[in-house]
Amino acid sequence: ETFQARHLYICDYHKNLIQSVRNRRKRKGSDDDGGDSPVQDIDTPEVDLYQLQVNTLRRYKRHFKLPTRPGLNKAQLVEIVGCHFRSIPVNEKDTLTYFIYSVKNDKNKSDLKVDSGVH
């Protein structure tokens, strides 16, 4: 019986992102607490919402039914969307597991029916 290895290649950006999260966990776990306490990721990466188009920000606002006054400019939309986006809880372990499963199985969002709170 022969075993054929399947190699999975991840782009440099995602490889570095995963590695930086791992390194951060090692540093935080090596503090005087013995590594037994849950890790609170204080230095989460910031998302530059200014890169998004105004229509995208409006769609996000509409999708999550964020209460706002009409006629907001881009800076105001970025502020409101950013506050909401940062407040969404993320289970990092489940998200990474799902991401790796999707990459390994060449799946995209429409291929999988996942029952999660975030769509």
UniProtKB/TrEMBL annotation:
Entry superkingdom: Eukaryota
Histone deacetylase complex subunit SAP30 zinc-finger domain boundaries: 4-32
Keywords: DNA-binding, Metal-binding, Nucleus, Repressor, Transcription, Transcription regulation, Zinc, Zinc-finger
InterPro entries recorded: His_deAcase_SAP30/SAP30L (IPR024145), SAP30_C_sf (IPR038291), SAP30_Sin3-bd (IPR025718), SAP30_zn-finger (IPR025717)
Region Disordered: start-end pairs: 22-44
One GO biological process term: regulation of DNA-templated transcription
Main location: nucleus
GO CC terms: histone deacetylase complex
Ranges where the Histone deacetylase complex subunit SAP30 Sin3 binding domain occurs: 52-104
Subcellular location: Nucleus
GO terms assigned for molecular function: DNA binding; transcription coregulator activity; zinc ion binding
Family recorded in the similarity comment: Belongs to the SAP30 family.
Name of the molecule in the record: Histone deacetylase complex subunit SAP30
Originating organism: Neophocaena asiaeorientalis asiaeorientalis
